[in-house]
Amino acid sequence: MEWINYHHLLYFWTVAKEGSVRKACERLSLAQPTISGQLRQLEDSLGEKLFAKSGRGLVMTEVGQLVFRYAEEIFGLGRELQDVLKGRPRGRPLRLFVGVSDVVPKLIAYRILQPALRMSEPVQLICEEDSTERLLGELAEHRLDVVLSDTAVTPQVRVKAYSHPLGVSAMTVFGAPELAARHRRGFPRSLDGAPFLFPAAGSNLRRALDQWFDENDVRPLLVGEFKDSALMKTFGQAGVGLFVSPAAIEREVRGHYRVNVVGRLEGVTERFYAISVERRLKHPAVIAITEAARDRLFA
Question: How far apart are CA 237 and CA 258, in angstroms?
Answer without folding.
Answer: 7
